[in-house]
From TrEMBL:
It is a multi-pass membrane protein. SMART domains: CTNS. The chain crosses the membrane at residues 48-70, 109-127, 139-157, 219-240. Signal peptide: none annotated. Belongs to the MPDU1 (TC 2.A.43.3) family. Keywords: Membrane, Repeat, Transmembrane, Transmembrane helix, Transport. This is Mannose-P-dolichol utilization defect 1 protein homolog. InterPro entries: MannP-dilichol_defect-1 (IPR016817), PQ-loop_rpt (IPR006603). It comes from Leucocoprinus leucothites. It is found in: Membrane. It comes from the Eukaryota. GO terms for cellular component: membrane. Residues 274-316 are annotated as: Disordered.
């Protein structure tokens, strides 16, 4: 058998050496020393790392498709995804500038790109900007320029400051996930949050703790993955608990309009929020037109959103 493994084509050998190194390739492949615990652990770490990088390159795609197909980012926290993008970018830059193997951090590079797109989509589909295209374009342009400037700054800052920022990803990870966790708890729903993405992140964090211990040994990086594991686990529990529920949301960004009413009469209800004066148009006079009367909300107006197709109604 070793006669075959020692005479494999050059491109297979080069690929194997590039992954596990000359020593472990010779031991595991050419000599078939399957009891070499050190090389087995290292090969397992490399395999997991490559799998995580490949998975990270597509992890957020289901989330992107959910937003685009629904034409809505309902239930997704802008601050949460923005802070998460920053944390991924810091970790990617820190690992790259310390010349860690790409298999130990590559997924953060891909997640940074995908999260940046999600941030722009959340802004694009924000209800408060749906009727003001100029303002929406300004917000998207500002977000794009801010992210580009952030990348340039991370590439130029000194190593000691970058190490400080990497340590800051621990509280940053908490700050990134808490808005989403709190929004889910308040709404009793996870909205357009992707179960695939959350589940993949939980598994990825578990694997990353192992690969970091085997290949990097940097406690700053390991601590960030441990914190991310706990927070993603909480999101996973929320997905299980609120699965299929439409939820209740603070409607400060929503304008609601629903046709219907009792006895087949047309009825239009509009709720204008954000601290201003609310207006309710209801009822039909003899001419078939509605009468209106101003109303000032006594507290935060909340709406319940159903599962697709989404129906909106005021909750008392």
């Amino acid at each position: 058998m070793t006669t075959i493994t020692r005479n494999l084509p050059w491109f297979i050998k080069d690929l194997g050496v590039s992954i596990v190194g000359e020593e472990c390739y010779t031991s595991l492949v050419e000599d078939l020393h399957v009891t070499d615990a050190k090389c087995l652990k290292y090969a397992l770490s490399k395999g997991l790392g490559i799998g995580i990088v490949v998975g990270g390159s597509i992890m957020r795609l289901p989330q992107l498709f959910l937003i685009i197909s629904a034409r809505s980012a309902r239930g997704l926290s802008l601050s949460s995804f923005s802070l998460e993008t920053l944390a991924y970018s810091i970790n990617t830059t820190y690992s790259f500038r310390h010349e860690f193997p790409f298999s130990t951090y590559g997924e953060n590079f891909f997640l940074s790109l995908q999260n940046a797109i999600i941030v722009l989509l959340i802004i694009h589909y924000r209800p408060s900007l749906s009727f003001d295209h100029n303002k929406r374009r300004q917000h998207i342009l500002f977000a794009s320029l801010s992210m580009s400037l952030g990348i340039l700054l991370l590439s130029a800052i000194p190593h000691w400051l970058l190490a400080f920022l990497q340590a800051a990803t621990l509280p940053l990870a908490v700050s990134a996930k808490l808005p989403q966790i709190m929004q889910n708890a308040r709404a009793k729903s996870t909205g357009q949050l992707s179960a695939f993405a959350v589940g993949a992140q939980v598994l990825g964090c578990l694997a990353r703790l192992y690969t970091t211990a085997m290949e990097v040994g940097d406690w700053l990086v390991a601590s960030a993955f441990a914190m991310a594991l706990v927070l993603n686990g909480i999101l996973g529990v929320q997905l299980w608990r609120y699965w299929g529920k439409g939820g209740i949301y603070d409607a400060e960004d929503y304008e609601l309009a629903e046709q219907g009413g009792e006895r087949g009469r047309p009825e239009k209800v509009s709720v204008y929020l954000g601290g201003g004066v609310g207006k309710v148009n209801s009822g039909v006079n003899g001419n078939g037109t509605g009468s209106s009367r101003p109303r000032s909300p006594t507290g935060p107006t909340r709406i319940r959103l159903g599962t697709p197709p989404q129906r909106m109604r005021k909750v008392d």
